[in-house]
Amino acid sequence: MALLDEILEYNEEFVKEKRYEEFMTTKFPDKKVVILTCMDTRLFEMLPKAMNFKNGDIKIVKSAGAVINHPFGGIMRSLLVAVYELNADEIYIIGHHDCGMASINPEKMLEKMKHRGVDEKTIDMMEYSGVDLKGWLRGFDDVTESVAHSVNMVRNHPLLDTTVPVHGLVIDPTTGKLDVVVNGNKNR
């Protein structure tokens, strides 16, 4: 059975048995917090539990490495929507130790793309057009520096209310221990 079929079969029972009821909440975060974190599978349940959050408490935005690549990209837009439309009063940017983005090799990733069918002419055309694919695909060397960089990008965004604290933390994906990189309450 294909994974999609398994998901749909399970979902039918989930809805029929009303297992959704324990998750019912509104679209507004009860704790008025939005978190940008990594898409790492270890953080899926660990991060909210390590911070004592339950369903409905927070908004979570995910990107590889909890990185904001562009000040006017989708990640930043999501943070602004959370603040202005969904009543979030604080922003947390949470990276993690042992992050896959720390070991990304752009050249190897481009080779994997080619191996899976992306035409080399497409890659050449993008680079010829001025897209720095290697820079865009590059990870980071130090998670604390990466978190601090993302915090600064958000905190200094021209459309963000300057009274919104922007915190930066790093979590251990094994133990859940949080280390503060930037305390946004001290930087307002």
Automatic annotation (TrEMBL):
What keywords are assigned to this protein?
Lyase, Metal-binding, Zinc
Enzyme Commission numbers on file:
4.2.1.1
Query: Could you tell me which CDD domains the record lists for this protein?
Result: beta_CA_cladeD (cd03379)
**Short name of one Pfam family for this protein?**
Pro_CA
Note whether ATP-binding occurs among the keywords. no
> What's the cofactor?
Zn(2+)
Q: Name one GO molecular function term.
A: carbonate dehydratase activity
Q: Which reaction does it catalyse?
A: hydrogencarbonate + H(+) = CO2 + H2O
Give the family from UniProt: Belongs to the beta-class carbonic anhydrase family.
This protein is called carbonic anhydrase
Organism lineage string: Bacteria, Bacillati, Bacillota, Bacilli, Bacillales
